[in-house]
Amino acid sequence: MGTFIQLVIDGLAMGSIYAALALAIVLVNQSTGMINFAQGGMAVLSAYVSYAFLGMGVPLILAIAIAVVISFALGAVVERLLMRRFEGGDPDTAVVVTVGLLTLITGVCGMIWSYNNLQFPSLFPGDSFPFLGAAISWRSLGTFLVIAAIMVLLQLLFRKTKIGLALRAVADNPRSSSFSGLPVGRLLMVGWGLAAALGAVAGALVAPRLSLTPGMLDGALVYALAAVILGGASSPIGVVVAAWLIGVLENLGAVYVPFIGHDLKIAVPFILLFVVLLIRPQGLFGRKTVVRV
Length: 293
Known about the structure:
By secondary structure, the protein is an all-alpha fold. It has helices spanning about 1-30, 40-55, 60-80, 90-115, 140-160, 160-170, 175-180, 185-210, 220-230, 235-255, 265-280; strands at about 130, 135. It has a domain at about 15-215. It has a two-stranded antiparallel sheet with strand order 1-2. The longest helix has about 30 residues, at about 1-30. This is Branched-chain amino acid ABC transporter permease.
């Protein structure tokens, strides 16, 4: 029983890493209607910015706060100067641009800070405490609680606030929103800025666990995208639950299903994804899209 609980706890901790990135992807999607493949690279860049300020003697909390502000500005600038040229056109073109942006950011980080593993300090203590025969680290628990809080805040943002509703309206129909008097361009910049700021928080949470490298979120990005599809791109709660589910099932499958093991555990979330999409194409918590003709 202790082994089972430990696997579940470790799966929730790893799922929280996927969820951190998935929430930023959902934020861009809810604000602009597109999937941003560069989100992982922007999160890594923000983690390096925090690391640079740490090297100057700035306290960890303050360094992360500065990185969040810089990331917000960077996200807004990227939308204004780059992505706006492709918005409203072929969605596939915009997606390819974000893939290119991911490659560019990763290369810039490697050029400036090298590709060596760097140690990034954690916001939470590194020791553990016992629970039902398992060991729970304060770092994993802290990451879990932060992600849960961000999930609730994002849900409230998009459901209960004027700016959240405006962001959703712009993502759904920019032209109609413009006719209604909404500042579409400004709202798109805010959406990208908020997603980049959330990415900064994600980078600060993930870097202590994975070690800071330019490609530290490449693998997590795949799982995050799976969580977005599985949970529903319109639901912050859905993607977090899906990310936790992926992390837990991946761990349990690796130990309790002999033919999977640790080598094939990456297939577990995609098998789950295939089964769910056959039943609910919009994802577990997503909304059906109604097209009127």
